[in-house]
Design a protein that fits this description.
Strand 4 and strand 5 (about 205) form a beta hairpin. The radius of gyration is 38 Å and the shape is elongated. The chain contains 26 helices and 31 strands. Strands 6, 7, 8, 9, 10, 11, 12, 13, 14 and 15 form a 10-stranded mixed beta sheet that branches. Among the domains are: about 205-430, Valyl/Leucyl/Isoleucyl-tRNA synthetase, editing domain (Isoleucyl-tRNA Synthetase, domain 2, Alpha-Beta Complex), CATH 3.90.740; about 850-935, no CATH class. It is α/β, with parallel strands linked by helices. About 40% of the residues lie in helices and about 15% in strands. This is Isoleucine--tRNA ligase. It catalyses: tRNA(Ile) + L-isoleucine + ATP = L-isoleucyl-tRNA(Ile) + AMP + diphosphate. One of its GO terms (cellular component) is cytosol.
C-alpha cells in the first residue's frame, strides 16, 4: 500500500546536506585577535624554527621602518608583501626566518623631542647631550612598541621577540665598527664640498632625504664686465649670466661658457621703458637664447656685431658685478662641459661653494671656496654687504646692490621643481661645509664594484636594475656626516697638527667594545677622548669628531648586525621595499656592503609601488583621502587588507579606498563561501572513502588537473630558486577565479546532486569527496600565506587539534600524473557547449516556462567532432538537467524541451520512473536505493 498525498513522507532528513562549524560570516575584527593569542600560546614561530632545522635557509632581510608614529597604509603594503613571501617560502620547504627591525636614530625623533622642549619653554641647547639622547631613546622605544603591535595585528609572522633596532647597543657597536672599516681602508676622508644643507634643521641631508616640490624662485640676469679678452672688441663688453639663486652671487668666483656654443656680441640700440639696460650696452649672450633674453631684459632695436665660438673666450677675465663693494677680485671665464643652451644665457655663474658642477670646476682650476653662508642660512662676514641676512630673503638686497652698481640686467620669477627637506618640508641649499665622505672611486673602487654587483643581482621588476645602476654611476662621493646629536657618532680623532684622521685599529676596537656594553653614549661621556685614544696619546693634540653618521649609513649596515650574528646567511636572499628605496636603503646598503665586504648584501631586489587613493591621488590628511590600516582592520579585518595587497599588481602604484575595500570584502566572501561549502561537504570523510585516481570520473580528474596548474604557479612564485620566483602578480586573482568560477559555479554546482542525494558509498559520491578532501587541503595551504587567519580557521574547522596549525605545514604534494592537458582541452570545449545549453535554459527561466534547470531535457545539436565528448546522461549531469538529447548539426545549437515524468521529492529531478516504487512512490529509483540504505 502506498502513502496517500496527505501522508507523503518528508525525506529532507535523508539528504546529505553540508555540515560545518565554519560560519558564513568572517567576523574577522573579533576572530583575528583571538587567533593571534592562540599562535602566541602555541609558540608557533618557535615551533616553525625548530621543525625547519636542516632545511635550506631563505632570508628576506627587513628594511627598517622609522620608529616614529603609527603605521600608515604604505607600511601595511610593505610588511604584508614581505609576510606573504616569507610564509610561502616556508611552505615551499625552506627555513624562512625573518627578523623585523627598526630605524631609531636621526632628525625626525630629535625634532619631536625638541618640540616637546619648546612647548615647555626649555632650550634644547641647554640640555646635557646624554639627557637629550636618553629622551630620544625613550621616544623611539615607545613607537617601536606601538608599531610592533600593529605589524603583528596585520598577521605578520617574525621573530618579534628578538627584533633588531639601530639603537640597540650591539647595533651601535657594529655601526661604529663598519665606519672604522672605511676609515682603515682609506675610503673615509674629511673634505670641503657642497652638500644638500637644510638651514632649518642645520644639517647636511642625503639625496634620499630630499623631495622635490614646486617653488617660486627669484631670477637674476647679471652683467660681468670683461676686463681682459683675446679679442679687443670683447674688452668692455658684458657677459650676461642668468640664475635662479641670486643669493649665491656673493660666492661667485668664475663664469663658465661652452666652448662649442655660438655667442652673439650684441649692441643695444633701443630698450623698453622698464628695461634696466641702456642704449649703447654691449652684451655677450648665446645666440640661440638671444630672443628669450631680448624679451626678459626689454631689448628693442639691436645689432649683432658678430658671432663667436665660446672657445674664443679662453683666458678672458671679468669683474664681479659687485666690484668695489668688497668683491674686488678677478672673475675668470672657464670652459664647462655642463653649460647648455636649454635655458638662461649660455653663461653659468660659478659659486664653488654652492653647486656640484661649480665645485668640480673650481677644484679643477684652483678657485677659492669662500664660506659665505652659516649653518642657519644667514650670510657670514665673507659676504660683504649682506652679513646676517638669510639667503632666502636676500634677493631684494642683491638686486638693489647690483642696480646701484649698474650690473643688474633683469629680474623675474620662475616656478620650478626645487629640492626640499622631506622632514621640515622647507627648501634646502647647496652649501660647501667640511663633512666626512666615503670616496666612490679612490682606491677601494666602490662605484665600480657596486655596478658589477648590480649586474649580478636579480631585480623584480627588472627595470629596477637600470634605475639603481644609473644612480650609482652618477652619484658624488657619499657624505655620511650629520651635525646632530641623536645617532651613532663618527668615532674618529683628527690630528690638530696634520689635519689627518687617526687610522688606528686599536682605537676602533676600544670604541666597538665600549659601545657594545654602554651604547654610543660612551662617546659623549667625560674622559671619552683619553679612554679611546689610549695611554700613549695626548687628547689635547687631537680633535674628537662630534658629528653623527648619516642614518642611511646605519640602515645600510643592518646586514652586518642582523645576519651573521644570528647565524643567517649573507648575502640575504631578498631585499624588498618600495621603489623609492633605489635612492635610499637599497642604495646605501649596496655601497656600505661593497665597501666593507666587496659584495652586495642581497641576491635579489623586489620593489613595490606607492599607495594612492581611489582616484589615483597621493594621500594627505588635508584632502581627507587617507586610508589608515588601523581603521580597515577595525571594520573588515587584516585578511581583507592582505587580500587587497595580493590582488594588486604590486610592481605598480596601488589604489585603495572605501569602494575598493568593499570589492575586496566581496572577493573574500566568495572565497570564504567556497571554503565553507567544501568543509560542509567533506564532513566525516575518511581515507577509507578514497577513490584511486585511475577510477575517478573525468570531471574529478579535470579538477585535479586544475590543481596541478595552480600548484605550479604557487610554487614558482614561492620557491626562491625558481625562474619565476617572487612573481606573485595574478596568482591570487587566479585562485579566486578558481574558487568562484571553476568550483562554485561549475564543479560544486554539478556535484551537489551526487553529494546530497547519492547513496553514501556510491563511487560518484566518494570520488567527489576524494577531490573535495584534496581541494580543502590545497586551498587552505595556498591561502595560508595571504589569508593567514581565515586559512587557519578553515583548517581547524576540519582538523580541530589544539596544537595544530596550517602554518606548520608545507604545500601539499601534487602528483605530476594529475596533469592532463588533453583532458583540460576536452573540458574547455565541454564548458563552451554547456554555455550554449545554459543560455537556452535561462531564456526558458526568464519566460516563466521553468523554475529550475531540472525541469528541462534540452536538445544539444553538435558537429560530428563533438558528438563523442560526453554521453547524454553525463551531459544531463553536467548541465544539471533531468534528461538530455544529443543531435547532429554543422554548428552547435541548443533548444529547450521539458523533462518528461514527475519530480522526485528528494533530489527534485523530473523523471518518468518517479511513482513506480510501491514503498517510496514520490522518489526516483536512485533516491529509493539511497533511502533504503539508510534504514
Amino acid at each position: 500500500m502506498t502513502d496517500s498525498p496527505a501522508e507523503a513522507r518528508d525525506y529532507r532528513g535523508t539528504v546529505f546536506l553540508p555540515k560545518t562549524p565554519f560560519p558564513m560570516r568572517g567576523d574577522l575584527p573579533k576572530r583575528e585577535p583571538a587567533m593571534l593569542e592562540r599562535w602566541a600560546r602555541l609558540g608557533l614561530w618557535e615551533r616553525l624554527r625548530a621543525q625547519s632545522k636542516g632545511r635550506t635557509p631563505f632570508v628576506l632581510h627587513d628594511g627598517p621602518p622609522y620608529a616614529n608614529g603609527n603605521l600608515h597604509i604604505g607600511h601595511a603594503l610593505n610588511k604584508i608583501l614581505k609576510d606573504v613571501v616569507n610564509r610561502a617560502a616556508q611552505m615551499a620547504g625552506y627555513d624562512a626566518n625573518y627578523v623585523p627591525g627598526w630605524d631609531c636614530h636621526g632628525l625626525p625623533i630629535e625634532w619631536k623631542v625638541e618640540e616637546e622642549y619648546r612647548s615647555k619653554g626649555k632650550d634644547k641647547d641647554a640640555v646635557p647631550v646624554l639627557d637629550f639622547r636618553a629622551e630620544c631613546r625613550a621616544y623611539a622605544t615607545h613607537w617601536l612598541g606601538v608599531q610592533s603591535a600593529e605589524f603583528q595585528r596585520l598577521g605578520v609572522a617574525g621573530d618579534w621577540a628578538d627584533r633588531y633596532a639601530t639603537m640597540d647597543f650591539p647595533s651601535e657597536a657594529t655601526i661604529a665598527g663598519e665606519i672604522g672599516k672605511f676609515l682603515l681602508n682609506g675610503s673615509l676622508y674629511r673634505g670641503l664640498r657642497p652638500v644638500m644643507w637644510s638651514p632649518v634643521e642645520k644639517t647636511a641631508l642625503a639625496e634620499a632625504e630630499i623631495e622635490y616640490h614646486d617653488h617660486v624662485s627669484p631670477t637674476l640676469h647679471a652683467k660681468f664686465r670683461l676686463l681682459k679678452a683675446a679679442a679687443e672688441d670683447l674688452v668692455g663688453a658684458d657677459v650676461v649670466i642668468w640664475t635662479t639663486t641670486p643669493w649665491t652671487m656673493p660666492g661667485n668666483r668664475a663664469v663658465a661658457y661652452g666652448a662649442e656654443i655660438d655667442y652673439a656680441l650684441v649692441h643695444v640700440e633701443g630698450v623698453t621703458e622698464t628695461s634696466l639696460l641702456k642704449v649703447g650696452d654691449r652684451l655677450l649672450v648665446a645666440l640661440p637664447l638671444l630672443p628669450g633674453f631680448e624679451k626678459d631684459a626689454g631689448i628693442g632695436a639691436h645689432t649683432v656685431k658678430r658671432v663667436l665660438k665660446g672657445a674664443e673666450l679662453e683666458g678672458a677675465i671679468a669683474a664681479h658685478p659687485l666690484r668695489g663693494e668688497g668683491y674686488d677680485f678677478d672673475v675668470p671665464l672657464l670652459p664647462g662641459d655642463f653649460v647648455t643652451t636649454e635655458a638662461g644665457t649660455g653663461f653659468v655663474h660659478i659659486a664653488p661653494g654652492h653647486g656640484e658642477d661649480d665645485f668640480n670646476l673650481g677644484r679643477q682650476y684652483g678657485l677659492p671656496i669662500p664660506e659665505t653662508v652659516n649653518d642657519d642660512g644667514t650670510f657670514t662676514h665673507h659676504a660683504p654687504g649682506f652679513t646676517g641676512l638669510h639667503v632666502f630673503k636676500a634677493h631684494t638686497a642683491v638686486y638693489d646692490a647690483m642696480r646701484a652698481a649698474g650690473t643688474l640686467a633683469a629680474t623675474g620669477k620662475l616656478t620650478h621643481s626645487y629640492p626640499h627637506s622631506w622632514r621640515s618640508k622647507k627648501p634646502v641649499i647647496f652649501r660647501a661645509t667640511p663633512q666626512w665622505f666615503i670616496a666612490m672611486d679612490d682606491g677601494n673602487e666602490i662605484r665600480a664594484k657596486a655596478r658589477s654587483e648590480i649586474a649580478r643581482t636579480r631585480f623584480v621588476p627588472d627595470a629596477g636594475r637600470n634605475r639603481l645602476d644609473s644612480m650609482i654611476a652618477a652619484r658624488p662621493d657619499w657624505c655620511i656626516s650629520r651635525q646632530r646629536a641623536w645617532g651613532v657618532p663618527i668615532p674618529v680623532f683628527v690630528s690638530k697638527q696634520s689635519g689627518e684622521p687617526l687610522r688606528d685599529p686599536a682605537i676602533i676596537e676600544r670604541v666597538v667594545e665600549a659601545f657594545r656594553t654602554e651604547g654610543a653614549d660612551a662617546w659623549y661621556k667625560p674622559g671619552a677622548a683619553a679612554r679611546f685614544l689610549g695611554p700613549d696619546r695626548d687628547p689635547a693634540l687631537y680633535e674628537q669628531v662630534m658629528d653623527i653618521v648619516d642614518v642611511w649609513f646605519e640602515s645600510g649596515s643592518t646586514h652586518a648586525f642582523v645576519l651573521p650574528p644570528r647565524g643567517l646567511p649573507f648575502p640575504a636572499d631578498l631585499y624588498l621595499e618600495g621603489s623609492d628605496q633605489h635612492r635610499g636603503w637599497f642604495h646605501s646598503s649596496l655601497l656600505e656592503s661593497v665597501g666593507t665586504n666587496g659584495v652586495a648584501p642581497f641576491k635579489a631586489v623586489l620593489t613595490h609601488g606607492f599607495v594612492l587613493d581611489e582616484q589615483g591621488r597621493k594621500m594627505s590628511k588635508s584632502m581627507g583621502n587617507v586610508t589608515a590600516p588601523q581603521d580597515v582592520m577595525k571594520q573588515y579585518g587584516a585578511d581583507i587588507l592582505r587580500l587587497w595587497v595580493m590582488n594588486s599588481d604590486t610592481a605598480l602604484d596601488l589604489r585603495i579606498g572605501p569602494e575598493i575595500l568593499k570589492q575586496q570584502a566581496e572577493l573574500y566572501r566568495r572565497i570564504r563561501n567556497t571554503l565553507r561549502w567544501l568543509l560542509g561537504s567533506v564532513e566525516g570523510f575518511t581515507e577509507a572513502e578514497t577513490v584511486p585516481y585511475a577510477e575517478l570520473p573525468e570531471l574529478e580528474r579535470w579538477v585535479l588537473h586544475r590543481v596541478t596548474e595552480l600548484d605550479a604557479k604557487i610554487r614558482a612564485a614561492s620557491d626562491p630558486d625558481s625562474a619565476d620566483r617572487f612573481a606573485w602578480t595574478g596568482v591570487y586573482p587566479e585562485i579566486h577565479n578558481f574558487c568562484a568560477t571553476d568550483l562554485s559555479a561549475f564543479y560544486f554546482d554539478i556535484r551537489k546532486d551526487a553529494l546530497y542525494c547519492d547513496k553514501s558509498d556510491s563511487l560518484r559520491r566518494r570520488a567527489a569527496r576524494t577531490v573535495l578532501d584534496i581541494l580543502h587541503r590545497s586551498l587552505c595551504a595556498w591561502l595560508a600565506p595571504v589569508l593567514a587567519f581565515t586559512a587557519e580557521e578553515a583548517w581547524l574547522a576540519r582538523f580541530p587539534d589544539e596544537n595544530g596549525s596550517v602554518h606548520l605545514l608545507d604545500f601539499p604534494f601534487v602528483p605530476e600524473g594529475w596533469k592532463d592537458v588533453v583532458l583540460a582541452a576536452k573540458w574547455a570545449r565541454i564548458r563552451e557547449l554547456r554555455g550554449v545549453v545554459t543560455a537556452e535554459l535561462e531564456k526558458a527561466r526568464a519566460a516563466g516556462t521553468i523554475g529550475s534547470s531540472l525541469q528541462a531535457a534540452p536538445v544539444l545539436a553538435v558537429p560530428a567532432e563533438d558528438a563523442a565528448l560526453l554521453t547524454a546522461e553525463t551531459w544531463a549531469e553536467t548541465c544539471i538537467t533531468s534528461d538530455f538529447v544529443l543531435a547532429p548539426a554543422e554548428a552547435p545549437a541548443a533548444s529547450f524541451a521539458p523533462a518528461p515524468g514527475n519530480k522526485c521529492a528528494r533530489c527534485w529531478r523530473v523523471l518518468p520512473e518517479v511513482g513506480r516504487s510501491a514503498k517510496h512512490p514520490t522518489l526516483c529509483l536512485r533516491c529509493e536505493d539511497a533511502v533504503e540504505a539508510l534504514s
